[in-house]
Amino acid sequence: MGFCSNGREESEMYHAQIHMYKHVYNFVSSMALKSAMELGVADAIHSHGEAMTISELASALKLHPSKVSVLHRFMRLLTHNGFFAKTTVASRKEGGGGGEETVYDLTPPSKLLIRSKSTCLASIVQGALHSSSIDMWHSSKKWFTEDEKELSLYESAKGESFWDFLNKTTESETLNMFQEAMAADSRMLKIALEECKHVFEGLDSLVDVGGGTGTLARLINELFPHMKCTVFDQPQVVANMTGTENLNFVGGDIFKSIPSADAVLLKWVLHDWNDELSVKILKNCKEAISGKGKEGKVIIIDIAIDETGDDRELTELKMDYDLVMLTMLNGKERDRKEWEKVIYDAGFSSYDITPICGFKSLIQVYP
Ligand SMILES: C[S@@+](CC[C@H](N)C(=O)[O-])C[C@H]1O[C@@H](n2cnc3c(N)ncnc32)[C@H](O)[C@@H]1O
Q1: O-methyltransferase dimerisation domain spans which residues (predicted)?
Q2: What was the ipTM of the complex prediction?
């Protein structure tokens, strides 16, 4: 193909270059977001109570005076990316002399970084962009040439599985960071749970398998105070947790056995595992709900990839997550067909999938 021989080819090539560079530098937007989260930009604007100029923001964040122009450039990108809104207002400075100034305000995405709010997702930004989640990508070429199907990129690069890394006593800070990120994600489900109360009606007991530190179980308990909820997770995760009359914590292993209940909840658990291990978990869930006969059910909250039904941006997010699960844990995000396979392979007779809260789906599975 000639380089500049014909207008169409030339324009196609330069579009391709833009496409390529855009994807090469996607990480800059992610990292700028992480910097804003670490600096507490959203908290500063929230505490101030109104939109702020760059100098006000720099002073509230206690930045070095030499970094005011740096902050301006970060805010320019973050504003372009929808995290802040920029407006021009009459100068509020004393003796402003009728001049104007540019002020930055919060937008719905940056409101999700306000730490005092229950919907804060700062810990997700922290965990997803932590060096332990990113460093391994430098070893992907080596991983592709290894003959170890079950080895995640994480394990190939670091010599230990992500779960082992999390559970090392010396890394308890990382375990806390991970559990806090999971809790933050669960808190986001509050409204969705209220909207799908019917899913839990008629159940006297529920076990939240891989339920972490119990954030979701607590939300369910608030909606259904009479339901007996059990949070089942690895012993080291639930060791110091205290329950209430209708909320208790049990340590154990999902691959061995799961406490009995009318229903089992699995939020963000099956995407951690490949199909074979997911079938094993689902079979143990089936056993756990067997006392309730045909009335028992397994409630899965996870991603369902739907390339034809979802828009491009949503599908990209779901596919990004698929690679996160693959590389960190050898897990996977599934489309309808893939869900159906693991569900039927585990011996269940039917299921239904409903999208809830943005990018996750609620999958009810019946014996
Ligand atoms: C991705 S987290 C999801 C946590 C929680 N369901 C949520 O969405 O916030 C997966 C959970 O599975 C737990 N887990 C991993 N392996 C387990 C095992 N063998 N037995 C019990 N729990 C396990 C982890 O400790 C972790 O809390």
Answers
A1: 22-115
A2: 0.99
